Amino acid sequence: xxxxxxxVQWILFHAIIAITFLSCAQAEQTPSQEIRSIFEGTLKIHxxxxxxxxxxxxxxxxxxxxxxxxxxxxxATSDTTGYFSMEVTAPQRxxxxxxxxxxxxxxxxxxxxxxxxxxxxxxxxxxxxGQNIRIRSQENASLHAYQNIRVxxxxxxxxxxxxEDYDDQNVLRQIVQTTMILWNLQQTFxxxxxxxxxxxxxxxxxxxxxxxxxxxxxxxxxxSNPRYSEAARSARRSESRLxxxxxxxxxxxxxxxxxDTELQRAEIASERVISxxxxxxxxxxxxxxxxxxxxYIDLQWSTWAERTVYEIQNLLPGMDAPNFTxxxxxxxxxxxxxxxxxxxxxxxxxxxxxxxxxxxxGRNDLVVTLGEKIEIVSISMQPDTLVNEAFFEERDIxxxxxxxxxxxxxxxxxxxLPTRYLIxxxxxxxxxxxxxxxxxxxxxxxxxxN
Length: 450
Fold this sequence. Notes:
Helix content: 40-55%
Distance between the termini: 26 Å
Strand content: 15-25%
Largest sheet: 5 strands, mixed
Number of strands: 15
Strand order of the largest sheet: 13-12-11-14-15
Number of helices: 15
Structural class: alpha+beta
Order of helices and strands: HHEEEEEEEEHHHHHHHHEEEHHEHEHEEH
Shape: globular
């Protein structure tokens, strides 16, 4: 039951973030041409709100967010009949923001799928009275279908968790049904964004539940799919479970050859490094990370490779934990050598992080249970002292607290929060934990000490 619950949480997490791939793709991919499409429609006001038949003055804006500022891709105003028409010019195919306003008041906002040659049409009466904006076009119908499948899947999983029928078999049945619907969406809406999202997600959420199907579908996914690399990550893990390390490396070679872009090949190369690390082949992981660092110097993955090289050389389990000296909030200078003979949890966090806050009771319980056998050194990565002070005003948190990470966060290669290192009484690294892992640390420590 516990196994099934956490796997469901992982599935829900992927479903929530799936739609965000388009904005990421826009930031990372270089467009080969401008995307042009037509967007038109008729906007009116309900007769019980305004008896006049003048529907002019509706402003319709299609834009993308550029560091908090809108970049206009298309704009039109309605005539007296409420009709508007515009040409939308976008840097690449994607989902963009749609805002409808009148007399300086926003009437509605949402999203619109923009693809080259697509013609979209919208009819709406205001106020919407709880209705969603519906945009008619092949691309937008595909996107709506994909989103609806996601919503229904999430709802079914939540209902299953809350029911007496909750077990692995029933979850698997739901997964199989949803992935089949997602995968088949490409037959109903071929070559659309919604079907591309759906086919990749069928691979992603199927991992761990139907591994052979996941691998087979990945072999059919074209390199042009914007979520190709994300799907490849899931399929790599499925192949590893099915056939082991040697087959996985061959599979990654196959995926790299089918990739469309250098960015995709870099992302798949990172999976090779991770695969070697998962198999404890650290020498090979180091070699391939160094190759990535040199080969993809113009991509963000070069930085990832650099950090991975550092991790392999300095922060693997069994290595001596890097020493540090910090000043805690009481003004005391503390270093790793001060805790010789004790287990140490070195944690890096943001005070406002919900995950960290939820884990505080378990964290404090561990110290109470183990007493002098363990010390916790907490490094806040929040640079605002006032935020840190406000956080501690309302909480009694055991351990040694440092407000600014500074050099220690670089020494321990921190780029995700929360991150915790567990260090043994001889000062050697036991393990690294990223995200909500306090329960795993608690269980490990209780078993170890007892």
